[in-house]
């Protein structure tokens, strides 16, 4: 690719961006725990599952686990796991797999040193500088999905960036999935809230890709997050969605919700024991339902503010837990999910430094799947339009950091050094002029003008520049191409399922 071509590919919607890429992490992971410490957490996790057990709030799940060799305590939903059962089942999980997008170029590999960036998901509220903070709604949901399509650095849309709470709950998923399919050509995510929502998502994915369910099983498109209700519980609707996903060969991201001091012990080591126990139990259950089903080990351990009980993210504890979670996932050879999370209430310095800390913890922990990569605020209570742009800048910078550093005869620039010699400058050197627009990272949001020029241009702070950028991206948005026959089939399916009652239909 020529430098000029690379420059042109960075421009989309009149805004400079990095090109669409598949990212791989070339660096060694940071390991905060020794091999002996990892084994201590591993052994303690298995003791938790053997001696205390975990509640599975679904009768079919209890029957599956009992048939697999687990001990179901009579008259309860408590399951105790022999360690041999856990290790044998977890070993069946694939260490790498591919999720297939509607646009093949946007398919993503999960595992190894592959790193994929997603947007915020599941926020109940939304905010921007113009309208302020408000409950989630369908209009904002659609606009956030369109921005995810417009930003090259966002590679997948995990669920609803904001909950479209103004739509009826039984049929909300049908409208949301239709938008995810038609307004993007990237990977998207259904919620594991019972079987029916997953069944509908599977059918819509098949229609969108023009394939059968059997083909979808061998070339999966969907992933879904399954959170445990820490400590040591997995709820019925999550279990039912998990089983439907696994039986159809779609990926399940098993993520304990282990906030240290609240839903897990008030030490990071203890929280990691609980995280690991719940993750191993959930993954063992996935593999008992469908051996070989794709899955991920999710890490979400952080701390809480002990004065208020509020979650804290982007903290030193969060980063160390993210790095340790990567070590644990690699021990079991399972792809790893982490997050870009912050607890800030405004798009300010706190939002930036907490997210930067979170991103570094995820990347250097060698996560494969970064959830909430762009737009997350208030510990997950808000999806912010301006924060989406701020985080896109952070992710673009990280994406550039992941690119190989070129050291060859041309980049060593000896001819340029000879041309300039002692005491000169390189602004006018031929070597510089040849690289004028492609030598360095081109920022999406950052403003590198001096103070006087910046002030003359309106003195816009980062949040105000972000406000302008997301509006410009929406104004210039174009929906990706979709066969009209496929679109019509999707609409017919949505209308039929609505008539049948949506998720309320058996």
Range of strand content: 5-15%
Number of strands: 24
| CATH class (first level) name of the domain at 23-29 and 90-401 | Alpha Beta
- What's the end-to-end separation, in Å? 54 Å
- DSSP helix fraction: 40-55%
Describe the structure.
The chain has 506 residues and is of the alpha/beta class. The chain has a domain at 23-29 and 90-401: Trimethylamine methyltransferase-like (TIM Barrel). 45% of the residues lie in helices and 14% in strands. It is built from 19 helices and 24 strands. The strands form seven sheets. It has a seven-stranded mixed beta sheet. Helix 6 (169-182) packs antiparallel against helix 19 and helix 13 crosses helix 18. The chain is globular, with a radius of gyration of 24 Å. The termini are far apart. Mean pLDDT is 95; it is low at 1-10.
List keywords for this structure.
single chain, 506 residues, alpha/beta, TIM Barrel, four-stranded mixed β-sheet, 19 helices, globular
Structure at a glance:
The chain has 19 helices and 24 strands. It is α/β, with parallel strands linked by helices and 506 residues long. It is globular.
